[in-house]
Amino acid sequence: MTITDKKEIKIAFVAGLSDKKIVQFLEPFNAIESVQTVHLYRRRHLPSFGKVISFPMGKWARKRKHLGELVRFFHLLCNTHKYDVLIGCFQRFHGFWAFLAGRLLNRPVIQLIITDIKWNHERPLYRLPMMHANACGVMGEHSKMQLSKDFLGEIQVITLPFSMPDRIWIDQKKEWDIIAVGDFAIEKDYPWMMRVLAKLKKEYPNFTIALLGNGHEEKLEYFLDQSELRNNFVFPGHLHHKDLDEAYARSRMLLMTSRWEGLPMVAVEAMTFGLPIIATTVGDIPWLVRDGVEGKLVPHGQTEKMVGALLEMLTDRKTCKAMGETARQRIEELYPKFENMHIAKQWNKLLYSALDDNKNKPS
Fold first, then answer.
1. How far apart are CA 119 and CA 233, in angstroms?
2. CB atoms within 10 A of CB 71
3. Beta pairing partners, 278
4. Mean pLDDT, to the nearest integer, of 34-39?
5. Backbone dihedral region for residue 23 (phi beyond 0: left; psi -120 to 50: alpha; all else: beta)
6. Alpha carbon distance 44, 19 (integer Å)
7. What is the pLDDT, as a whole number, of residue 258?
8. Strand-pair category, 176-181 with 251-255
C-alpha cells in the first residue's frame, strides 16, 4: 500500500479557539473516509463528536495556563508516535507544539494559518513552524498568494462551514447603525475604534453602535467617558445562534478595526445578512470584501479615512443598502467554498500531500 492509498489516518489536532470555531474546523474530518480518528489536544474539554475525540488533559492543564501548555505538549509528545499526521491550528503555541513534536518523532505536520501571513512572517516563533510545515492550510485566497511566495509545499484554502440565513432577515427594521463583533483582544484594536468613533461623533452625533462580545464595557470605560460616546453604545454581550442572527439583521453595517486577521467569519456572517463591511486591509479581508463594492476598506491606523468611510455609509443610505445587497450576493457566489464536503476535499489534499512530503524528505 502506498501512502496515497493509506486508509485509517490518525490525526492529532492541536488547537485552542472558541467551542464554536473548533467544531467548525473539525466537522469536515467526519466526512473524510480515510480519516479514522482526530484527537483534539486542547486545554479545555470539548465533547466528542463523530471521529473527533478530546484528549483528556486533567484539571491542572485547564486551570493554569502556562503549566497547562507544558502538560499539553508532554501528552502530545508521548503520543505522537501513534499518529500519522499532526495539525497545528496556528494560534500562540498550538502551531509550535505540533511543529516540535513532529520534528522530534518524524511525523508530518500541517499548519493551519488562521491569522495574517505577514504577521507570522515578522515573528520568528511563528515563522519557523509555518515555513517548516509539510503542508499549510490558509483561510482565503489572499493568504494563499502571500504564503506561496516563500513556502514551496502544498497550500489549500480551508474555510469554515456555515449555513446561509434566509433572505427575510435582511428586511428587518434597523435598530443600530453599526455593529462590531468580537471579544476584547489586542488584534481587534478597540481603542483605535473608539478614537475613530469619537471623531465620527463630531460629524454625525447620533449614530448608534452595538459592540458584541465579552469584556468591552469595563475595559473601554475610560474611552467612553473621555469621548462622550457612552450614549452611542450598547453592549449586548456575547451572543450565539439566533440572538447573533437577530443582531446582524437589526444593523446597517459591520465595522472592523483589526490590526491583523485571517478570514474573519464575522464579516462572512454579516454579509449574508446584507451588511456592507467597513474594515481594515488586513489578512483575507481584501479578497472577501472588494473596496467600493461590498464595503469600504481602509489601511489600519488611518483614522480620517475610516471616519470618512463610516460617514459616507451613514449619510448615503441608498449606497449603504446597495453595497449590503452586493455583499449578500458575494457570499452566495463564494458559498460553495464554505460547504462541508468542499472543505473535506481540501483537507484530504493536505493530508496526503503532507504524508507524501514527509516520506520523501531525508531522515
1. 31
2. 17
3. 255, 296
4. 96
5. alpha
6. 9
7. 95
8. parallel
Provide the H-helix boundaries in the chain.
19-26, 59-63, 65-79, 94-105, 117-121, 124-131, 141-148, 190-203, 216-219, 221-227, 241-249, 265-272, 285-288, 303-315, 317-334, 340-360
Q: Do 12 and 361 form a contact (C-beta atoms < 8 A)?
A: no
Q: Which of 116, 89, 92, 113 is nearest to 280 (CA)?
A: 116
Place of cell 507570522: 120
Q: Give the pLDDT confidence of 43-82 residue by residue, as tens digits.
A: 888 899 999 999 887 776 677 777 888 888 999 999 999 9
Secondary structure of residue 229 in the 3-state scheme: coil
Place of cell 451572543: 239
Burial group, residue 18, by CB count within 10 angstroms (0-12, 13-18, 19+) = exposed
The Cα–Cα gap between 5 and 207 comes to 59
In angstroms, rounded to a whole number, what is the distance separating the alpha carbons of residues 32 and 195?
47
Amino acid code (one letter) for 345: K
Helices (H), 240-284: 241-249, 265-272
**In Å, how far from its chain's centre is CA 90?**
10
What is d(CA 344, CA 28) in angstroms, rounded to the nearest whole number? 5
Query: Average per-residue pLDDT in the chain?
Result: 90
Tell me 51's DSSP state.
Answer: T
Q: Are 115 and 89 in contact (CB under 8 A)?
A: no
